[in-house]
Amino acid sequence: MFKRSLSHLDKLPKTQVAEWLGGIDTVICGTDGVLWQENNPIKGSVEAFNTIQAKGKRSLIVTNACCLTHSELFQKAKCLGFKVKEQDILSSAGAVSNYLTDRKFKKKLLVLGGEGIRKDVQKAGFCAVANDQRPDDRNRLKWVQNLVLDPDVGAVLVARVDDMETNQMLVACNYLQNPKVLFLTTSTDGFQTLGKSRVPDAGTVTAAIEVIVHRKPTVLGKPNPRILGKLIESGDIKPEKTLMIGNSLKSDIVFANICGFQSLLVGCENGAFDEAEKVKKEGDEKMMKLVPDTFLASFAPFLDFLCTEVKAGNEKDKKTQEHKGGSVKQQIK
After folding, report:
1. Structure pTM?
2. How far is CA 61 from its chain centroid?
């Protein structure tokens, strides 16, 4: 109905939006900037999210976040008030583990950042290690020249690094000089917003490494459908009846377009809406994958449309019953 139109849902008749939502069975939500901001739920998001399930739809949380383990992420969502099952939270850690399993990976995985993802990958049976090489008091250039590289490291994974040290990137770059060492990342997003502030995301470090090693990484978080496991393949979710709600064009909206989902962009602070509007205006077909179907300033107003959908459904059922009743009366006559 709204394919790549960037339609402002709050400017449309609620009944029209309700009709659209009536065809949605599964709603997938991102985390930071959609449901919560660091350790605080975004106003109205808890009520909107919990109402999705209350109205008979399936709700999933799919995130590239990697600072927490899967279990810790579930506990965080639960403590913030979101009613979600642990199996309905999917993160980039699962995608990384599945990817390594498919490749029959037996070597060590060097992880930059993402303490949570490192622990989850270890739990999945892989040897995931953090960099422990530092120049200390040595001259940095001489230290780099004399780096001792572990021949058993077969992959480098770049995740979000809040306490990034230059030496971590230096070590990673030197491992990635070897084309046989896999170059992996959880995301291509350059930053995350914290109110009006911004913090670097995995894409920032990944882009810097790309420039140095002249290689492109394999992205295993969104927009890679691998993060969903076998949910689409098994038929557990139907793409045409699934809505992706996110605040990133590169991760969430492209992910929705690749998977065949419908999409809702929320939030204005990170500049995504302005970028999408520009792309839509220019009309470059190659870039249109960045344009969402719909837009809301925040996730909270979604609750109103869910409630309108129920009212619209009740009215429809009432009219159907009245029609059936009339037909019976005519038959009696």
Report:
1. 0.88
2. 8
Which of 8, 15, 93, 52 has its CA nearest to residue 242?
A: 52
DSSP state of 147: -
pLDDT of residue 317: 47
Please check the confidence at residue 324 and state whether its pLDDT lies above 80.
no
* Whole-number Å distance between alpha carbons of 8 and 317: 28
Cα-Cα end-to-end distance for the chain: 43
DSSP string, 200-229: E-HHHHHHHHHHHHT-PPEE-STTSGGGGT
pLDDT tens column, 25-70: 999 999 999 999 988 999 999 999 999 989 999 999 999 988 899 9
Tally the residues of the chain: 333
CATH number, domain 7-64+223-316, options 3.60.140.10, 3.30.750.24, 3.40.720.10, 3.40.50.1000: 3.40.50.1000
- Pairwise CA distance, residues 47 & 209, whole Å: 41
- The distance from CA 218 to its chain's CA centroid, rounded to whole angstroms, is 16
| 94-219 under CATH 3.20.20.70, yes or no | no
